[in-house]
Amino acid sequence: MKKSLIQAALATAAATMVAAVAAGCSGGGDEGAHQQGDPAPRTSSIAQAQQESHNQADLTFVQGMIPHHEGAIEMADLAETRTDNPEILDLAERIRQAQGPEIEQMRGWLDAWGAAEMPGPGHDQEHGRHGQGHHEEMPGMGAEDMERLGNASGAEFDRLFLELMVEHHQGAVDMSRTVLSEGSSPEVKDLAQRIIDSQEAEIEDMRSLLKN
């Protein structure tokens, strides 16, 4: 009889241990599932941080600088068929090589911020008057300026190209200085400083060419 009671007690204890182990495993599974689910909240936090890392000044700068860069490239493209001056052609190529990748970088920021681009050169077909309006608002790229540049060639083109591009570059430098003082995104400020450094150097080069 006593043996039966002892066996029953042992069986009960064993069952209790099994249940405790099972409960522990189940709890660990929940914790593992929670841990496996962690990347989603972290991803959401990263996206939120990207949204909060910029302010309206950064957005205004990026939305304005994309068409501004496009305008400079539009001017640089004209040089290919309107001058054989190696210094002008080299400058035009440097402008394309520098500002093309910067446009793509800024477009990536707009995508991350969920913001739209502003209409610029090349949007004329879809937006009608936007193309001309864009030129009118941009330093060195008034509609009449672009028409004169497009109709010029040789030495006349070289002089007009340099004069307009100096003014255009100065506009980019001014925009960059504004976002350095008013923006909050470190990435945007880094680009703005690079624009200042490179375009001020090109302004000096162009002023030297104008003196020759």
UniProtKB/TrEMBL annotation:
PROSITE patterns: PROKAR_LIPOPROTEIN. It comes from the Bacteria. Keywords: Signal. It holds the Pfam family DUF305. Residues 1-22 form the signal peptide. Gene3D superfamilies: 1.20.1260.10. Residues 123-138 have a biased composition (Basic and acidic residues). Residues 58-210 form the DUF305 domain. InterPro entries: DUF305_CopM-like, Ferritin-like. Residues 26-54, 120-144 are annotated as: Disordered. Residues 42-54 have a biased composition (Polar residues). This is DUF305 domain-containing protein. It comes from Saccharomonospora xinjiangensis XJ-54. The lineage of its organism: Bacteria, Bacillati, Actinomycetota, Actinomycetes, Pseudonocardiales.
